[in-house]
Amino acid sequence: MQNKGLIRVFAILFGLVSLYQLSFTYFTNKAEDEASAYAERQVSNTVEDYVDRRGEVERRYLDSVGNNPIALGITYNDAKAKELNKGLDLKGGMNAILEISVADILKGLSNNSTDPAFNQALDQAAEAQKDSQNSFLDDFFDAFNALPGDNKLASPDIFANTTLGEKVNFNMSNAEVEPVIEKEVEESIKSAFEVLRNRIDKFGVTQPNIQRLDNQSRILIELPGATDIERVKFQLESTAQLEFYKTHYAANVAPYLFEVNTVLKDLVAPATNEEVEAVTVDSTETKDDSIEELLASEEDSVSTTTQNNPLFELFSFNPAIQQYGQAAVVGYAQAKDTATINSYLSKPEVVRLRPQDLRYAKFRWGTAEGETSVVGLYALKSDRSGTPAMDGDVVQDSRQQYTQSGLPSVGIDFEGQGPGQWAKLTGEVASEGNAIAIVLDDVVYSAATAKQEIKGGATEISGSFTVTEAQDLANVLKAGKLPASAKIISYDVVGPSLGQEAINSGLISFVLALVLVLVWMVFYYGKAGLFADIALAVNILFIFGILAGLGAVLTLPGIAGIVLTIGMSVDANVLIFERIKEELAKGKSQKDAIKDGFSNALSSILDANITTFLTALILFLFGTGPIQGFATTLMIGIATSLFTAIFVTRLFIDGYGKNGKSLEFCTAATRNLFTNFNKDFLAKRKIAYIVSGALIIVSLISLFTNGLDQGVDFVGGRNYTVRFEQPVNASEVEGKLIAELESAQAKTYGEANQLKITTKYRIDEEASEVDDDIQQKLFSALGSYLPGDLTYAQFVKGGSSEAKIGILEYNKVGPTIADDIKKDSFWAVLGSLVVVFLYILLRFRRWQFSLGAVAAVFHDVLIVLGIFSLTYKFMPFNMEVDQSFIAAILTVIGYSLNDTVVVFDRIREFMKEYGPTRKMDLIINQAINSTISRTLNTSMTTLIVLLAIFIFGGASIMGFMFALIVGVVVGTYSSIFIATPVMFDTIQKKALKPEVEVEEETVA
């Protein structure tokens, strides 16, 4: 080998750089361990919410020592910025995909146009998005252009307006307007991205990640350590549309609501007794009666339990109206009933009842009162266009502060015309006696009166805030408003305790797999195996060093990718060692055998690893989150494996043998293993065809009849991982869940006291209270299986308590993105097959080789799918088909091709060597027999590794590992009994003509 010195220097420098990069992770962990120990000393586990309190103490401790040198002048803050990032599945936190509403952006650009063609095109685009792979904007343009009539985007009623100024004029065609709108939409989404980035930067988590996805309106956000979904939703989904309204007197609104209730009696079916809550009102009075009479005592009122009172079964008046008719709050209702009440108030028959002074009133709800779920109803003064008394665009700054009574609040400073507008508004309210409602995104946060005109350009939002809620509100206001509404269409929340368990299980599987591989290599190849082990250790150092240096995120699938790389990385050494043994058997000297062995194995090594790399690359391009982590580590592992196997191992072998020392590439137990192995594999191909055909037919029948257990990634829904104190019966629990949630599925997940619960209940609803409602129902249904003293709050945060009882992890995927994920997965698999077909065609120059390889891959994929379809109902672990399963399928494709390419490479070599002098069937059999040792050795090593991960890697990746285990077994079989026979049976006589002999450059 030439340039040994240069390679040695490079390897040493690369190793030192890797150690340097990983040192930051060591220093970070050291500081965080000290912070954790300090927090445990400061906060006893007998304190209520001690876990959250300890977390706060840890954060304060780390903030205080952040700039103190730890070692070599490195501070904690420096180390934290450069540490090896752990994914959410390893440290807990939230992963969300946010979609910016392009429809809202278009409405804004059109000044909320009422043009029928414009709005019809928006509706059609929204409908098309359910099945389309185009962007919303493209579907909108297609829908608009397809409408009958001469519809112009440059109409003054659409985009030729004051908003777009000189960018769109009346004479422009639709084709000319489209790029202008595309640019405006892109700018709006960029603006939204920056607003969200500013909010996240102030969210209080370390190493947040925000990035735009291929879909132009979708944004991926990762928040390590954030598990409060409601808080995250507020931060991400708030458009921050701040408005100030004057309120109507509650006493003036009450008579109207009595009339509303009367009209609703004929419009709404009576509620059942179970649905009625004890709210008493008098519905017989008219708007001319006094407020005191309207709010008569219970003795004079009619109970809603005996009459049909649609409105007052859900709503009760503010008792303060009797003493103070100018009160801002009209009445109260449960948060879950507000949508129903809103639908009542928006009915045309109800709207027509409005008196003149309430004609343009806006009815808006407030925030929840304290720990309850009760919210207040306000009637806000407005005009025909819905304009507020004052707009929030004049806000300059906001901050969390405290009221005079010491309660958390949010301070606001105005700029520009704001101070003057505020002084005028407060002066009017002071004389009228009503209140100013501060409204954010159509929610009333506070409504305060004013005794006099307030000058100075500042105000305060007060309410039943916690400090965190006040900080979040100030953060949202300060970061600015979004140009369009945004909604979370998919999220995944992992509790910190589950993250720690994932780390533990990942480490166990990693160490065990590594030990098994190291021992196996020494057992099989003796001292040469020891050199391969050293190269493998260097390889692992390189992988972690590169991950840290690139700032990549290590996930649990990423650890699986590294462990799988351990199993597959020995393949290169196995190929080399087997070729060296062949050269030694020919009587060559040790030096020449080593030189020729490395040279002859190089082609097979490159072809095998490139095909696997291509499938990993496709996985990286089409996957998201943890799947990209798996693909990243696999690609890095393949690259470093090539370097360490070809160069580092060679350095040790050449160094050992330079003084004439003898190096045997076997041990006493393996010396004669597979020696003179000579089987007629092609003779068995018809039997193999029958067996494989039967397996494929059974698989296809099962797939069409039994189907697959599709996860929420593909069908939409919510997943909850729930842990109990004692083992539970999944079927029994499922029955109780169905009674509460209509649609539910429960499966044992890992241990017998842990379930994975899936439901599609209310999956199409986007309201923020839906998640809480489902978790409440979950808590109610599971109550008999939970400890009696476990509260709802503890159940929801089960992953962060020492008892670890309750919800450890949950995620939601909306139907639209589920459909997109399914289509992306299909294209990923299809794309990998096409790429591999073309690569093999390029390398082997015969389409029959490509056909054999792809036939084997189809064979392997169908059988893996069939086994999952046949067994998912009774297997004791999760076998859902989701993004992780697609990652497994692509890995199986890569592995199967790896095996096949090694055999094909040997066939090509023998075809060049023997040409037409030897029959094709003899060449193929000789090629299979000569590579059988490598095939079985690599398969055995990989299976040992996969079994280690399957047993010790944790419940979350058992299905993933099972797919790989089946794939490795089937892939090893298909490379011998499917790929080569198909190639043999389809190859033509003319394809047997000898190739022109080309001298290949050898590695000196």
Strand-residue proportion: 5-15%
What summary fits the major beta sheet? Answer: 8 strands, antiparallel
Give the % helix. 40-55%
Computed structural class = alpha+beta
Uncertain spans: 271-291, 297-306, 989-1004
Please tally the β strands and state the result: 25
Q: In angstroms, what separates the terminal alpha carbons?
A: 4 Å
Number of helices: 30
The radius of gyration over CA amounts to 34 Å
* Arithmetic mean of pLDDT: 80
Give the overall shape. Answer: elongated
Strand order of the largest sheet: 5-6-4-20-25-22-24-23
Question: Can you walk me through this structure?
Answer:
α16 packs antiparallel against α17 and α27 (847-871) packs antiparallel against α30. The longest helix is centred in the first third of the chain and has 39 residues, at 4-42. The N and C termini lie close together (4 Å). With 1004 residues, the protein is of the alpha+beta class. Helices cover 55% and strands 13% of the residues. It has 30 helices and 25 strands. It has an 8-stranded antiparallel sheet with strand order 5-6-4-20-25-22-24-23. Strands 10-11-13-12-18-17-7-14 form an 8-stranded mixed sheet. Strands 15-16-19 form a 3-stranded antiparallel sheet.
